[in-house]
Fold this protein.
Amino acid sequence: MSAITAPAPTGAPAPNENRDRPGMSRGRKLGLTLGGLWLAGLVFFIAVLGFKSHKAPTVASGVFTPTNEFKLDTWFAVGPVDFNKGVLYVIIAAAITLGVMFYVAGRLRQRPGRMQAAVEMFYGLTSGMARENLDDPMARKYFPLIATLFVFILVTNLIGYIPLPVNSIDKFTLFGAHLPSFQIFAADTNVAFPLILSLLVFVLFSWERFKHNHYNPIAALKSLMPSGLSGPIAPLIFVIEILSYFLRLISLTVRLWANLLAGHMLIAFMGGELGVLVGDPWVQWLLFPFGIAIYLFEAVLIAALQAFIFSVLTAIYLGDAVTTH
C-alpha cells in the first residue's frame, strides 16, 4: 500500500524554498540603516538651516580656535613642575604600563591561557627587534628597554583616543558649575614628550659608540665614516655623517610627534570642528562618518605602528653604535 502525496498548489513555494534563499546579513542591514540615518540627517540640516553660515559667537570673535585643545593649561604647580593634562596623561600611561606588567607577570602559568599566549606573542615581537639588530650581549642588555618603550608608547597612544574631561580652556556649564570639556588628547602631541624619549635613546647609543671605541672621542667620530674612504670627498662625507647622526634625534622626535598630532587634528576636524568653524551643521553631519573612519584607523593601526617604529629604530641605532662601518 503506497502513500499518496497531494501535489502542491500551483504557484506555491516548494518546501524549504524560502529557508534556502539567502537573506540580507545583519551587518548589511545595520550598514544600510546607518547610511539611511546619515542621509536623512543631512537632508534635514540642509532643509531646516540651509547653506547659510551660523557661526557661534566664540568662533566669530576668534575666541575658539582648533589649537586650543593642544594647549597645556597649568592647573597647579608642585615646585618647578607645572601640572597639566600632558603630565596627567604621562602619569596615567606610566601607571597602566606598570599595572599591565605586574598583572601579566603574576598570571604566567605552566599551562598557557589566552593571556599568556598574547604575552608570548609580544615577547617574540620585541625580542625579535633586539636579536635582529644587536649581538647577544647587547640584546640581553637592552631588550628590557626596547620592550618597555614599546609598551609605554603604545599605552600612551591608545589612551589618547579615550575622551576625558581635561580641556580646561573650553569649558561647559552644568548646574552652574564650569567643568572642563571632554576631548581626546595624547601626550605625544606635545613635542616635549617624544623629545625626552628620543634624548634618552640618543644618549644611550652615543654612549655605546663612545665605549665601543675605548672611550676615545676622536675614534668615536672616525667610526661614523665608511671604512676605506679617502681623498677630497672624505671631508664632505664626514660632515654628512655628523649631520645624519644628530638628525636621528630629530627624526625620532618628529616622527612620533607629527603622526600623532596630525591624526588627532584630522579626527577633530572631520569629527565636527570644521563644521563649527564654517558655522554649518550640515558640514559637521556630512564629515562625521569620515571622522569615525579616521578615528578607527588611528586607534587600531597608527597607535601600534608608531610604538613599533620607535622601538625598532632604538634597536637599530644601538646596534649601529657598536658596528664597524
Notes: The beta strands are 76-78, 81-83, 164-174, 177-183. The mean pLDDT is 83. Residues 72-182+190-321 form one domain. The chain is about 65% helix and 5% strand.
